[in-house]
Amino acid sequence: MPKHTLIELFFVATGLAATLIIVNVAAWAYPLARREIEVCGWVIAVIVLSMGIGPVRRAWRQDRTHG
Q1: Model pLDDT, residue 1
Q2: Which residue from 24, 7, 11, 19 is spatially nearest to 45, judged by alpha carbons?
């Protein structure tokens, strides 16, 4: 897989990992709201993925056109 695409996928994966860490720490710190925190985490994960689609597609196109 080309360089630019890998970089963008790395950023998406980093965003998802950060979301996972923050959600787990928050759920541990406030166990009474564990379910609500997990739901918010899922919503944020979907947002991070949807925000990453455009940059990944652009990077993929750029890598295809520039060899």
Answers
A1: 62
A2: 19
